[in-house]
Structure formats: structure tokens, C-alpha cells
């Protein structure tokens, strides 16, 4: 038995010790939410239901389409791993090792924050006509970015990127701290506040890893979204009020620009750097491919237990397993811990929203993949049209095409060794 197999067994043993107890607790939490709905007591579940602008049947069929695709794609990924390492049983568990072995080991690669920011600011301008100008860094290390549209001041984004023990959460968030208001004699432009908990690398805080840059692009997508929201309500920030299924569309789309050829042109200046970036991209996409089934199962179980008061976590999982045969890749024991994470607790039943946003953003990004930023600017009216529902909460939500997610990530097929090895 290899060391990797032994370590996997130890991990499984630890996981299995408490999963039944935890599943029972999650079932009680879900049952309480249903009881609150029946008794008209406001709670997270009523809020989710109130804010969604898509029907339960549409969500359910979107999630089944996604899961059916995920099963096919994961079987394909497993074959790729089998071919590479010659292990038939549980080959998928060795994917991390395969990625690690195939990756170029040039140390922890980092990218200049100011170059990455100027690039993503150009993306915002080309696509949405928002001109972002970075101001000075204040004494707390935050950067204030002014936004202009067609030469007129349109709001502000504060980038507060660094870990600070005083921050209440170690997560990354974007808040719309000022909403756009117009009382005639007083106009309040929107202000978005990005709070991250990034830890600077050994080279100082002007250089970030690929995944840290991805976080910054993601949050900046939320911030640009906040600047561009129309039809606001006086007592709610634009971002908060968007239906859950549309909140991640623009943030995930901004992340994708890390995979655009123009990003490589901007941030790399030698063949070795370009190969390093290709490697970072390939690793990120390969890891995402491993999560297809897990994310689909979680989203569907979360949706199902909050739609049907009669079911339990295990009952819902078993129905999915009967239909798709997921247990060999994703056993039930993996499931319960996710349901006590903040994302599941805050928006019960809405975990599907991330996949929904991802499908939307992958479909919107792929036609732009081969364009220069000037050509993107030429195609801007089409881009704005596609994202219209992200800026106007009274617009409807169209069901996005799940296949776009697989097409985007499957570009990183395993037998294609990253360019740095070619
Ligand atoms: Zn987000």
C-alpha cells in the first residue's frame, strides 16, 4: 500500500467518527427552518425564498442537468488519472498527487499587484465603460479607487486587502457601504468596500500568488457590480438586494480574466514567466474539475432538503445516488460538515447560486477569449446586455447553460502537460 493510500485511510477514519451525529444536527436545523416558515417566523429560509427570482422547478432542473454533466466529466477525469498512474481503484483520490507531479516546481510564483490591478481596471473599462483610478494607499494599507463613467464621477471602491487580527472574519467580502442616492440637492455616489484577509508573500505586499489575484479579481467584480446597480432601494445596498442567483455572475466573470491571453501578455515578461503562469492556470482548472460532482451534490441536497420538509440529508443524498451513482466518488460521509459552514448557514437552500453564476459567467466569457481588449471594447454592448440582470434587480433571471462550466474548465485535460514541460 502506498503512503498516499495509507494517509487517505487515516483521513477517512477521522471523518467517519462523527458524521452521523453531525447529520442528525443538520437535519434538526433544517426542520426548525421549515417550522419557522409554517409559523410565519422570519428566518434564513424565508429570506432565500423571498429573494430568489427563479422558480424552484427551474433551479431543480438546472441542478440535475449540472449533476448529470458532472458525473460524465468526473468519469472522464478518472480515466485520465488511471492512464497516468496505473491505479484502477479509487484513482481519482490521487489527482492531487498527479497535479503536484506534473506541475513545474519553480517555487511559489507571484505576480505584481499593481500590474494585475491595472489590467483588471482595463477589463472593467473595455467591458462596462467604468474607468477606475487607483489613489494613494492610506496609513492602514487600504487603497481608494475612484470610478468614472463617461467622464463623470460614479463612485468609489476601497480595497482593504490584508489580513488584520481585528477583522471579524478571515474570509473575503465586498460590501456596498453606500448606495447611490439622488435627493436632488444631495447626490450620494455608491461606495463598495472590499475586505480580504490576504497575507503578503515573502517578497512583500506588492506581489501576490495566482489564487490571491483570483480573490482580488473576484471581489473587484462584486465592487464594479455595486457601482453599476440601477433601480436601488433606499434602505438596501444594491448588492444585497440582488436575487441570490445573480450575485456571483459578475465576480466569477472577473476571475476568468486570469485565463485570458491578454492577462499573460501584461503580467509576464519572459518565456519562463509565461510557462509559470500557464502552469498556475492549469493547476487551478484541474482542481476545479475534481470538484464538479461534490459541488453539484452539495447544491442539490441543500436545495432539496430546504424545498421538501419531509426529507433528510441522507434521504436526499440517497435519491441522488440512486439516480446518478455518485457514492463511489462522493460518499455521504463527506456531506454533513459542509452544512455548518457560513455559506450554507447564511443562505439556506441557495448554494446552487454559485454554480448558476459560474454557468452564466463561463458562457459570457468564452466568446471573448480570443479578443484583444480593444475588440472587447467593440463588443461591449453585447457584454452589458448579457449582464443586464446583474445591474437591475427587477429584470428576470434566465437559466444559464451548465455545459459552459465544463467547457471552460476541461481545457485543462490531464494528458496535456503544462507548457513549462514542453
Ligand atoms: Zn463572491
Give an account of the 3D structure.
With 422 residues, the chain is of the alpha+beta class. It has one domain. Helices cover 54% and strands 11% of the residues. It is built from 18 helices and 9 strands. The chain has helices spanning 3-16, 19-38, 44-51, 56-85, 95-102, 113-128, 210-228, 238-241, 249-256, 261-267, 271-290, 292-307, 313-324, 342-346, 352-365, 373-378, 380-391, 403-409; strands spanning 111-112, 130-137, 143-149, 152-162, 173-178, 181-182, 187-188, 191-198, 207-208. It has a 5-stranded mixed sheet. β2 (130-137) and β3 form a beta hairpin. α5 (95-102) packs antiparallel against α11. It is globular and about 60 Å long. The model is unreliable at 415-422 (pLDDT under 50). The chain binds zinc ion (ZN). Residues 218, 222, 248, 251 line the site of zinc ion.
Shape: globular
Percent of residues in beta strands: 5-15%
Largest sheet: 5 strands, mixed
Note the run of SSEs as H and E: HHHHHEHEEEEEEEEHHHHHHHHHHHH
Unreliable runs, pLDDT <50, ≥5 residues?
415-422
Ligand types: zinc ion
Given helix and strand content, the structural type is alpha+beta
Count of folded domains: 1
N-to-C CA distance:
32 Å
Count of helical stretches? 18
Helix content: 40-55%
Instruction: Estimate the mean pLDDT confidence.
Output: 88
Q: Give the neighbour order of strands across the main sheet.
A: 2-3-4-8-5
Supply Rg: 22 Å
Count of DSSP strands: 9
Amino acid at each position: 500500500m502506498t503512503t498516499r493510500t495509507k494517509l487517505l485511510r487515516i483521513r477517512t477514519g477521522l471523518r467517519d467518527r462523527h458524521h452521523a451525529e453531525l447529520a442528525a444536527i443538520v437535519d434538526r436545523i433544517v426542520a426548525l427552518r421549515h417550522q419557522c416558515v409554517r409559523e410565519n417566523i422570519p428566518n434564513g429560509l424565508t429570506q432565500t425564498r423571498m429573494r430568489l427570482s427563479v422558480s424552484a422547478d427551474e433551479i431543480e432542473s438546472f441542478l440535475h442537468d449540472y449533476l448529470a454533466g458532472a458525473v460524465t466529466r468526473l468519469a472522464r477525469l478518472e480515466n485520465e488519472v488511471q492512464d497516468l498512474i496505473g491505479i484502477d481503484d479509487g484513482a481519482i483520490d490521487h489527482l492531487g498527487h498527479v497535479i503536484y507531479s506534473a506541475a513545474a516546481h519553480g517555487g511559489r510564483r507571484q505576480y505584481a499587484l499593481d500590474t494585475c490591478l491595472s489590467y483588471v481596471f482595463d477589463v472593467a473599462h473595455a467591458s462596462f465603460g467604468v474607468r477606475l483610478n487607483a489613489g494613494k494607499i492610506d496609513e492602514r494599507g487600504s487603497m481608494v479607487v475612484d470610478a468614472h463613467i463617461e467622464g463623470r464621477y460614479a463612485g468609489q471602491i476601497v480595497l482593504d486587502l490584508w489580513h488584520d487580527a481585528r477583522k471579524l472574519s478571515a474570509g473575503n467580502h465586498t460590501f456596498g457601504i453606500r448606495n447611490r442616492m439622488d435627493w436632488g440637492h444631495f447626490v450620494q455616489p455608491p461606495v463598495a468596500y472590499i475586505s480580504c484577509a490576504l497575507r503578503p508573500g515573502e517578497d512583500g505586499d506588492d506581489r501576490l500568488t495566482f489564487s490571491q489575484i483570483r480573490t482580488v479579481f473576484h471581489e473587484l467584480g462584486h465592487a464594479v457590480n455595486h457601482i453599476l446597480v440601477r433601480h436601488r432601494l433606499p434602505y438596501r445596498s444594491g448588492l444585497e438586494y440582488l436575487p441570490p442567483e445573480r450575485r456571483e455572475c459578475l465576480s466569477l466573470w472577473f476571475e476568468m480574466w486570469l485565463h485570458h491571453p491578454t492577462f499573460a501578455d501584461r503580467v509576464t515578461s519572459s518565456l519562463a514567466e509565461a510557462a509559470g503562469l500557464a502552469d498556475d492556470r492549469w493547476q487551478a482548472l484541474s482542481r476545479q474539475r475534481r470538484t464538479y460532482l461534490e459541488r453539484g451534490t452539495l447544491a442539490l441536497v441543500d436545495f432539496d432538503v430546504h424545498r421538501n420538509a419531509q426529507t433528510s440529508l441522507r434521504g436526499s443524498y440517497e435519491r441522488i445516488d440512486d439516480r446518478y451513482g455518485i457514492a463511489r466518488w462522493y460518499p455521504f460521509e463527506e456531506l454533513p460538515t459542509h452544512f455548518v459552514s457560513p455559506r450554507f448557514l447564511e443562505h439556506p437552500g441557495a448554494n446552487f447560486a454559485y454554480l448558476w453564476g459560474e454557468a452564466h459567467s463561463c458562457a459570457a466569457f468564452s466568446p471573448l477569449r480570443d479578443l484583444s481588449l480593444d475588440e472587447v471594447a467593440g463588443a461591449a454592448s453585447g457584454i452589458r446586455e448579457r449582464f443586464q440582470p446583474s445591474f437591475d434587480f427587477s429584470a428576470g433571471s434566465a437559466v444559464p447553460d451548465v455545459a459552459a462550466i465544463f467547457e471552460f474548465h476541461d481545457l485543462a485535460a490531464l494528458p496535456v502537460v503544462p507548457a513549462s514541460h514542453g
